[in-house]
Amino acid sequence: MLCALSDNNMSSAVKDLQENNRTFACVTNYHNEMKYLLVSDIHGCLPALEKVLRFYDRSHCDMLCILGDILNYGPRNSIPEGIDAKGIVEALNRRAGDIVAVRGNCDAEVDQMLLEFPMMADYLMLVDEGRRLFLTHGHIYNKVSMPKGSIDAIVYGHTHLWELTRQDNTLVCNLGSITFPKGGNVPTFMTYEHGVFTAYTLDGEPMKQERI
User: The Calcineurin-like phosphoesterase domain covers which part of the protein (predicted)?
Assistant: First the structure.
């Protein structure tokens, strides 16, 4: 199935395909200057998401990339403070036209019935200014189990341990979690613009920056 989406702000093509029994999507930005906010492992916590969305608006970001585990907190985690799956659905659906997303290991088909943007793909290839960013949740593809082919960066979450390092010729970007950070870390998310990833605390303080 081939689906192309476009609007007045971005020249892009979105393709939902099936390859090797894994669903993926591709977003290509050909011309415009874009700023992306990348977040993972929300796990149903509305207050944490609201902080990210305020940063998104304040920083004039153009696209919100959500890398899985959106509504459910999962059986291995405690119940997060401020859990509000319905509130998250409402907040994200108001921005559905600005969102691309992939499926996490805690996401289910019933979540897709509520959310008004596709979020069931195993990975998404974002091509921006000729740079190939492989976006996924992290339970299938990660720095240990890399996808085949040439990519400039692999971006994921899942472990709740943020990371921004280089592995051979590929930048490894683990977004961490805005709700359940592990390893003594603070809640984190990242932005990407013109070949540069920047890691932030949930309060919007920059922590580290790396260029592809």
Answer: 34-193
Domains of the chain: 31-122+175-211 (3.60.21.10)
Q: Find out whether 154 and 173 touch, Cβ atoms under 8 Å.
A: yes
Segment 153-178, tens digit of pLDDT? 999 999 999 999 999 999 999 999 99
Across the chain, where does the E strand assignment appear?
Answer: 14-19, 22-29, 35-39, 63-66, 99-101, 123-128, 131-136, 153-156, 163-167, 170-174, 188-193, 196-201, 206-211
What pLDDT, on a 0 to 100 scale, did the predictor assign at position 25? 76
The answer to whether 53 touches 37, Cβ cutoff 8 Å, is no
Residue found by looking up tokens 């476009």 in the block: 6
